[in-house]
Write a structure and sequence with these properties.
This protein is mainly alpha-helical. Strand 5 and strand 6 form a beta hairpin. The N terminus is likely disordered.
Length: 367
């Protein structure tokens, strides 16, 4: 029997779930979630309708979630915590989509902040902060360790290069070397052969590094989520019942971070190609005010360097509003906690994650 009203139509007949055997009313099994099967679902029309419907609703959820994450920090996290999840993309799915688009953007424009070069371990050490100069020996140990690993990897690559050279003497002091970069043979002085091998090794080593670091950076960035979540949980342990709620907040924060960074590098890339402006367009006025010869010393003490201040500039407002919305925290306290979190996050990303990523990439390179 079907009951029909002006606004609703549903079937009161009992159904037997083909998946779990449960008997229920309606169109969806309340035991396992399986939908009632209809032979019309086997038609090509229904198949293509389902495909279009999936992409339409999925895309609308993603765009809606990104928009709300920008305009109302902490709102989607609060909705998820309160059990309202259907209207929004799942945090981890949204993060994967945004991370994928993020790496397309940074690869296209050549931004290296999240895909470091092998020399980036020399920057953003903990001892760069005036109050933490005493940890410089530890920072230097990390830098020296990566430098040593880079040199050892070079030596291990150079040895087989020298051994694989097909060479024979032309004169007493010269030799022909074949198989150098798959080009024609060249004649060099015998005592210059190590230099040729060294140059080939440098090219090979850099190529191996560049081929690996981009892929590894996509994986390493996931390490930040549980760390950021742990920090949120530590600050609000009285108000966050489950660590999973902190993971949701950390995911939404990183989604916002990757989106803003992508927009910024696209803006700088456009400005460079259109008007020849080099540097950060957004930071230009702040650099002029806060990082001139008279104010730089004080600005660095409070905000760190110009690059760190740039991240605090868009991290702190988002975190402050999110903390206020989620935990009903006083504004002064929300701003203070967001400041501490932002500075810790910056060091973790650019001072710790980068070094680990560089070291891991070098260690796993094979010629």
């Amino acid at each position: 029997m079907k009951i029909t009203t002006k606004h609703i139509t549903y079937d009161t007949a009992m159904q037997t779930c083909k998946n779990c055997g449960h008997i229920f009313k309606g169109k969806i099994c309340n035991q396992c979630g399986e939908k009632v099967f209809d032979e019309k679902q086997l038609t090509a029309k229904y198949f293509f309708h389902q495909v279009l419907d999936f992409f339409w609703h999925w895309e609308s959820k993603v765009l809606k979630s990104i928009k709300l994450n920008f305009l109302k920090p902490g709102f989607i996290t609060k909705e998820n915590i309160n059990g309202i999840r259907v209207p929004y993309a799942k945090p981890i799915q949204l993060y994967l989509v945004v991370a994928f688009l993020f790496y397309i953007v940074v690869s296209k424009v050549g931004a290296r902040d999240y895909i470091p070069s092998h020399e980036d371990h020399n920057y953003f050490s903990l001892s760069d902060y005036k109050l933490l100069k005493w940890v410089k020996p530890i920072d230097q140990w990390a830098v020296d360790g990566i430098d040593s690993l880079w040199e050892r990897k070079g030596r291990s690559l150079q040895l087989p290069i020298e051994e694989n050279f097909t060479k024979y003497y032309v004169r007493n002091d010269s030799l022909i070397i074949n198989n150098i970069d798959s080009t024609d043979s060249v004649v060099v002085k015998a005592d210059k052969m190590p230099i040729v091998a060294y140059n080939k090794m440098r090219t090979l080593r850099q190529r191996l590094y560049d081929n690996s670091v981009g892929a590894f950076s996509k994986t390493f960035i996931f390490v930040l989520l549980p760390i950021f979540a742990a920090l949120f949980f530590l600050f609000f342990f009285k108000k966050i019942k489950y660590y999973g709620a902190s993971l949701m907040l950390a995911s939404h924060f990183m989604i916002y971070n990757l989106c803003v960074y992508s927009l910024n590098v696209l803006l700088n890339y456009t400005a460079k190609n259109l008007i020849g402006f080099k540097g950060s367009l957004l930071m230009y006025p702040f650099n002029a005010i806060l990082y001139n010869s008279k104010t730089e010393m004080y600005s660095e003490l409070v905000f760190g360097g110009s690059f760190e201040f740039f991240h605090l500039l868009f991290w702190m407002p988002w975190l402050s509003i999110a903390f206020k919305r989620l935990f009903n925290t006083a504004w002064w306290k929300a701003v203070l906690i967001s400041y501490v979190c932002s500075r810790i996050f910056f060091y973790l990303i650019f001072g710790v994650l980068k070094k680990l990523l560089i070291a891991f990439t070098i260690w796993t390179m094979h010629g």
